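Hi R.,

As promised, here are both runs. First protein below:
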Amino acid sequence: MRVDFYHLEKSPVERALPQLLERVLQAGHRAVVLASSPERVEAFAGVLWTYNPNSWLPHGTAKDGSPAEHPVWLTDNDENPNQANMLVLTEGMVSANLPDYERCLDLFDGTNPEATAAARERWSAAKSAGHELHYWQQTPSGWQEKGA
């Protein structure tokens, strides 16, 4: 399984998440976004409705129901109710179900020393588990893959 770590330095997760999800959907994938609380799930849902007036990302939450109908499912539970093949971890979340996905995107706040240290621990755990690791750093012009 492939795990991509996204080091957020230029924008918060609320700005980076929609752009990454657009790429996920354009590639024909389905995604679960794991957030830290029900409040953050609803905040992300609001962002996906409003981040770009010329774009729309189809998504749902437990409040919407019918997870199978939503290519992006926002949750604070370690679940895969929409049969996603991509997992997006935010705010330091971890999943016991990584092997159930083809790929995981781990977004972390590079401006927060505690978040960066926690991401390093997740990197080490993923490496020990034998996952294929990739590291992406946010630059003014977009994402740049750095050596793993």
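And here is the second one, sequence first, then its structure tokens:
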Amino acid sequence: MVATAKVTQKVYAGGPTAWCPGCGNFGILSALKKALVDLQLEPHQVLMVSGIGQAGKLPHYIRTNGLNVLHGRTLPAAAAAKIVNHDLVVIAVGGDGDGYGEGGNHFLHAMRRNHDITYLVHDNQIYGLTKGQASPTSDEGFITKTTIKGAVDPINPMALAIASNASFVARGFSGDMEHLSGLIKAGIQHKGFALIDILQPCVTFNRKNTHAWYRERVYRLDQESDHDPADRTTAFTKSLEWGDRIPIGVLYRQERPVFEDRFLPITVDQPLVGLSPEPGGVESLLDEFV
């Protein structure tokens, strides 16, 4: 038996980045690489799927399989990839605009179906690629080019996910790379839809929710002995905390059947991509239309 070489971060080295110096995206990229190395996954075992935005550029900067799709359409493509090849570790990547704005409808149904994918949302509370418009998570009253009198009624992705019965709901902070890496690792290991909303400062267009602003407020849930991620009611209460204190960590986790096992038994024994094509099998179906 040939021994497999140990996976190191070097094998995941990607191309040069186009992010602004100091961007929170760098912490997310480093945390992701560390999680993949800790799990000893080879680059060919991983598929990164992304939409449009600064977050959507992440697959360009890491050496894995990659698929870049339309704005807000990350999750359908990621789910399709997992359906046809459940041997792949599928990680979807998007921003708060891409995921909760344009892709909001897909977000709801991916949680409902419980696809076995990990979803990393770079939540900087702003549209960064298109130069600083308000996003679905911009704080109440936040002034931008599109909200000159202040943003209104931000959505709460943690509360929305728990209310939708997502099977893994977590929040990380790009400024706490070690903790974030552990969350990503746990999300990949979880069998089911794993949402990790990542507080990610935008140093160019969001001068309110800065690294310093978050560091004064975030606290780790794993340091609170009374938090039980299996308790949905407690998790929902935690999801409503925002302002002076912001919890990071696994808010909610449960085990329930995944879409790929429940509705596609043909792929249980082997991935769809491994099945032999049988063109003649559709002849009887076509005969019905003659």
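A quick note on the second one: The two ends are 55 Å apart (CA to CA). Let me know what you think.

Best,
J.
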